[in-house]
Amino acid sequence: MEKTILKTKDLTMIFGGLTAVSKLNLDIKENQIYGLIGPNGAGKTTAFNMITGVYMPTEGEVVFDGVDISKYKPNKITNLGVARTFQNIRLFSTMTVIENVMVARHLRMGANLPEAILRLPSYKKKHQESYDEAMELLKKVDLEKEAGELATSLPYGKQRRLEIARALATTPKLLLLDEPAAGMNPQESIELMNFIAKIRDQFSLTILMIEHHMQVVMGICEKITVLDYGQSIAIGNPEEIQNNQRVIEAYLGVE
Amino acid sequence: MEYSKLKKILTISSFFLLIALIYFAPNFLNDYAIRILNLSAIYVILAVSLNLTNGFTGLFSLGHAGFMSIGAYTTALLLMTEKTKIMNFYMYDIWPPLQGITLHLIPSLLMGGTLAAIFAVVIGAPTLKLRGDYLAIATLGFGEIIRVIFTNSHSITNGALGLKGIPGVTNLWWNWGIAALVILIVKNILDSSYGFAFKAIRDDEIAAESMGINIFKYKLMSFVISAFFAGIGGGLLAVLLSTIDPIMFRFVFTYQFLMIVVIGGLGSLTGSVISGIFITIMMEVLRFVEQPMNLGPIAIPGIPGMRMVIYSLILLFVILFYQKGIMGTNEFSWKWIIKKIGLGKFIKKEAAEQ
Prior knowledge:
The complex is a heterodimer. Helices cover 40% and strands 24% of the residues of chain A. By secondary structure, chain A is of the alpha/beta class. Chain A has two domains: 1-81 and 172-255, P-loop containing nucleotide triphosphate hydrolases (Rossmann fold), CATH 3.40.50.300; 92-162, no CATH class. In chain A, the strands form two sheets. Chain A has a six-stranded mixed β-sheet, sandwiched between helices. In chain A, strands 2-1-4-5 form a four-stranded antiparallel β-sheet, with helices on one face. The N and C termini of chain A lie far apart (42 Å). Chain B has one domain (3-288, 304-353). In chain B, the strands form two sheets. In chain B, strands 1-2 form a two-stranded antiparallel ribbon. Chain B has a two-stranded antiparallel ribbon with strand order 3-4. Chain B is globular, with a radius of gyration of 22 Å. The A-B interface holds A 52, 54, 73-75, 78-79, 83-84, 86, 90-95, 99, 102-107, 109, 111, 113, 116-119, 123, 127, 130, 166, 170 and B 185, 188-189, 192-194, 196-197, 199-200, 202-204, 206-215, 221, 267, 329.
């Protein structure tokens, strides 16, 4: 049996009187590409925010790699090896492409402030390493030519790729992608699909993604959970989900 | 010529030019002009340190005058001789342990900076969890509290009487040397991954946190470094003015530096340096508007504070029409200057490879 990397137990989030996510149970195995789908407002991004520590769950647990992280702060969770991208792209707007990636390397650089202030050789070496690693990542997402440009001056598709590169720079074990194919045409979506499968193998990642493009989801996810009004209504592989009556009702409505 | 070599030559030659300027300044400038030059060095230090929090880390802090006063008082008390202290404290006796201590400039300044930094930790720990306007209000309150405490702790600060006769041990070399050091340190921080972390927090806190940056820790770090340099700047100011009192460090004083930073560009060191010098000189030049004037038929009496009206107008103009300030978030670079003076074609090829 494969090892479970992320497990949520009865994960619940209540905002005032609204239950955004109710008793969500996920069981994600190592190296899996897992899909989280559902109509708008189903609570998918809320689930992401609970896993990454942006929200503290009202109830339930998030267990990552054997550690209960449900009360951890986002930076600590990233430190443990969970990285994410955002639905509405959140790049550091006044910084260049390479600086955006180098911010994410800061965590793993192990430099201290005095050596940075004094520009000691030890710091210069670490800085150069961080730069090289960032450049290497940019090559992998095909952005090395834009390294010196302002992050926000990039076209939309490239900004999405930069967000993924930045997340990868934190050396995650689990990568959470929030609608990576949003706003892409079918051709770009297929490229993205191949790209995600490629980085999974290259970085031996586990990927949890929220996506609306059914083509992408059905094409690459190995297991899928469907959310509707905060409730998990179906779990299974792509074929099972496509033929599930409750899923069809949730997406198309009932007569 | 290769660009990196050219850059080195230009940097070194301008460095020596600056040294020569400072060396020969007393020959062709009078005492008044030298004093303005000294003051501008101190204002540059204070503006650069304020820019670190407000411009680069995106914290809206208004407690700068508070940190400056801590630095100013500490430096002053450590520098003054026992005799001067006794002369100053004629209403209340000075706290005995303080009476006998007399230190040199550098340890006094470092103590002032360190004490300001310690206060920054104490103030920052609870308030840096606040965002935007709330942080501004809390730090503003802190500045005022410090001032009130200084007014009332007679045996340490001599209360509202202030301290007089602080030995004037600095000169152009000290002030500009320390200013250069502060600029260099802050620049090194900003160019390192620590600086990237600060800017990331300014640009997007949620994304910064998900990049593994402990937001609170880095905000506090930026706040404390800024307070340290504010303390040193305050100390130098005390030495230059030779007299300090609590009224000097009203919150209006913070606004002066805030204005320098905004006019120079929030998030530009170069901007803070340029506008620090420019505003300090302007402040002196504009003194004439406070003199009584005779404009033909209209006679204007001298109104103290008229200069402030002009600053307000400048600030208003900048905020309305030139929001990014002189430099925006850009920094000085030789490449830019070379291009501007029309010699870009000579370095174009190499510059592209940089």
